Every structure is written in C-alpha cells, then in structure tokens.
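The methods section describes the discrete structure representation at length, but only in general terms. What matters is that the chain and its backbone geometry are given together, residue for residue. For illustration, here is how one protein appears when written out as sequence plus structure tokens:
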Amino acid sequence: MARISQIKGASSRGEFMKRYLIIILSIVIVISCQKKKEETTTPSTTFQGLFSMSMNLSAVDASDANYQTEYTAGYNIGMRGAQTVISWCTENTDFNYAPAQFLSTNNGYGLTRLSSQGFKILLTIPIIAITTKCAPPRVAADAFNTTAMKTAYRAFLDQILPSIDTNVLYVSFGNEVDDYFATHPTEWTAYKELIEDAASYVKASKSWVKVGVTTTFKGASGTHQANVQTLNTNMDVFILTYYPHPGNFIMQEPTVVNADMQTAVTLAGSKPLIYQEFGYPTQTDLNASEAKQWQFFDLGLSEWKTIGSTKIPFLSAFKRRDYFDNIASCSTAGTNANKFLCSLGFVTNTQINKTSWTNIQAKLTSIGLPY
C-alpha cells in the first residue's frame, strides 16, 4: 500500500509539473505572438519627409556661384529635397544645368549637381507648362498621342535618362497641366496616352522612379477633378501645386491650409501625395503679408507632420527668393499675378530675410527634419 501511495504521489506531482510547464509555455507563446503582432502592425513614428525649396533665380543673378549660395542656405536650414526642371520647350542638350528657362552652358544649378550633393530630387520634364504646349516646332502641331509626338518625347528623354540616378525619386510629365486643358478640354485623353507611354519608357530603365503629372490643387479639387483623377489613374504619385487663392491671386486666410491638405490627401487616394509647389505671397494688397505667409507655413508644416511622411513624402516650398523685376512687373502698379509671383519668396530679391526665413529652421527642427 505504501508503495502504491508513493507511486500515486509521484504521479500526481508529475502531472502537476506537466500542467505547470504547459501553462508557462502557453504564456510565453502568447507574449511572443503579441510582441510580433505589435512589431508588424505598429508604424514607425519617425517622420521622414523631404523638405525642398524652389531656388529659381532671375536671369540677372542666375550664376553658378549664386545657385551654390542658395542651395547651401537651403541645406543649412534642413532642406534635403530639391525640385528642378528640364524643359522640352528649349530642347537644350546641356542637362547639367536647370531650370531650363535660365539655362546656359556656364551657369545654373541642375540635375547632376544636385544629385552629387545628396539631394533627393523631384524632376519636372514639362510636356505642358501651365498654359503652354511645350513641344519643339517639328511636333508642336501634332496631337499628344500621335506616334510622332511619342517618338520625339522619347528621344528627348533619352538625353536625360543617363543623368537620372537613384537620387532622382520622382519625375513629373507636366506642370499645372489643368490650366492648359481649361482652354483645350478635348485633349485630356490624348495627353494621358502620351504620359503613360513616357512613364513606361522611363521606368523600363529607372525602375525606382515614381512617375506623375502635376496639376493645381484648385483644378484637382474643383472644375477638373474628374479629369485629373482619370489622368492620374496609372501614375505612381499624385503631384500638386498649392497656393490658397480662388484664381484671382487674392489670398484666402492661412488657416485654410489644414483642411485643404486633408482634402488633397483624399484626392490622392492610395497614392503618395507630392507637393511640387507650396506657397503664399507677402504682397499686402493681395490680402497677404509676412505674418500671414509664416502662419501658412507654420500651420502647413505642422499638418504635414500630423498626416505623416508616408502619405506626403515630399513638400517643396515656393520659393526662397523673390524674383527680380525683369521676370515680372513687381511694382505695386502691376497685375495681381505679377505681384503674386514677385512676393512668394522667404527672402527679398535684395537679400532681406522675411519672417518665414527667420523662423523656418526652428520649425523644421520641431517636426523632426532633417531626419
């Protein structure tokens, strides 16, 4: 009987230990699975946006040295992105320098230089530049979807592609194209065919590049919304310019920026949203000022951080310096459009810092840039 009792006792203790180990093992498995779930479902909290500023200089001071000064100033305040242009209108073969409207063999600041200095680039190669059909004379009269037009544009891209390295993240096939289609409403479909051909051509050799086409926020959210959505169907990214005015250059209050950015995110759908231009002037008779310009950027950059860099990976402010009078009539007697263009800078054309330039570095630091 004693032997039987010992056996039963040992059996009970063994059963207890077995159950204890099973319970411990189950707890470990549950904790491990929960940790793995958290690792796979919790997004990174690091904000990794690329901030850029347009550095377009007026012809009177578009020297190589001046561009170097401008980009150095941008880098020093936290700029790690860059937006530049190579225009089909000029059909210029010197692709070391851009933007093309200020292009020569001896000055400018372009694609290869920006890449060599580590900037991550949005490259715009306009087929349409705002209201202009930007094609060389031999195909200027052709429809966008003709074989001749596609062949000519591919030949132009062939000259640029060798300079596109992995620092070129985005390519846009047009600038504010909805403004052109406002007076050419039957050409949307043909243009879609051309840019899709160009997109496949670029991605065949530069697979990492995300392609798109730039429209205005006003057009993309208003009259041209359906056409803009269709145009972007097979693009990788949704690219906008954004200046909050209804079309007459009289500015809305800076506080509209938060809601407008949320609207833009909705318009982009599943695609990343790229801001090619994001700006607000300082000319007082446009319902603007230095204080309002800074409020716009202060609110807008905070909203960018809230939305996150996964959804908006690239934002380019327009622009660092005001244009000179030879680009547009910048006098108070000029048109609203001219006064708008001439006061978008963070710095005056005589190198006097505005409030936005004084504050921008601290703001970028506060949202975690450069990361």
User: Anything to note?
Assistant: Residues 44 and 195 are 34 Å apart (CA to CA).
